[in-house]
Amino acid sequence: VRYTGASGKAPLALSTLWPDVGFATFTNACLADGVLYGFTATRGVVRMDSDNNPDYQFASGVAKQFDSVAATAVCVGYDPASTMVVYGYTSGGVSRLICYNKGHGLWSTPINFEDLVAVPAGGPATIKEMFTNAGQLYIVLDTGAAEYAVYQFHSGSGATVKLRSPWRDAGAPEKNKTIRWMKMATENTSSNAITMDVYKNLDTTTKAATKAFTPSGSPQHLSNRCDIINAKTFMVHLEGITTSATSIEGLLSGIVSQIDT
């Protein structure tokens, strides 16, 4: 719908934006800071690109999560507080959320809704609708009881996060490394310590070092001294409770031996 500027009849006019794309129901789309996000029955997750054309490529990594999910079962909403576009559906008796972080351009792993909240008894829970009010996203759930339940997105005391990097060799797999510093960039509350574990040489059971980081609640860089020797390969594991929508970054620094072993 666009405003024509006419002072007489027809001040508003309808125009076709995407002639080959449509939504099965009103819950299939939302606006996020002026950008259209949605879900189509034929091609799945879509958004509007900078030229106002449909963009499916941005969701190629999560497309399989929607296999066999009917378009009428999908709800799309936006949470301005966390800049998350949230896709939710109930299929096969499971209610699931998949979130797209606009700020970082990253997708979340699938989240089972029942793992986040205590769903009232009365029947299988079904995600029915999402709406934004006063800068917060709310999710409407049909629990099978007499009344619907409404949940606020991105609220509560936080969740336990476990992050693990791939094995790395600093570009020199044949050389030993000595790791001197374990570093972290994060924004979290001071009550939520985050633990960094380092493993070496493809051994996933024995920790080469472990350190606890206690953030102060503002964006900051933290570091702990360590002494990990003879590490041809290394891997980082981060674990802790986070209430922040921002990323957690782990970094190791040290020395690569110049002697082949």
Key attributes of the depicted protein:
mainly beta; five-stranded antiparallel sheet
Number of helices: 0
Q: Please tell me how large the radius of gyration is.
A: 23 Å
Which structural class fits the helix and strand makeup? mainly beta
Average pLDDT rating: 86
Query: Major β-sheet, in short?
Result: 5 strands, antiparallel
The percentage helix is: under 10%
Query: What is the string of helix and strand elements?
Result: EEEEEEEEEEEEEEEEEEEEE
Detailed description of the structure:
The protein starts with a strand and ends with a strand. The chain has strands at residues 2-3, 12-13, 29-32, 35-40, 44-48, 54-55, 74-79, 84-91, 94-101, 106-107, 111-112, 126-133, 136-142, 149-152, 159-164, 175-186, 194-200, 209-213, 220-231, 234-242, 249-260. It is elongated. With 261 residues, it is mainly beta.
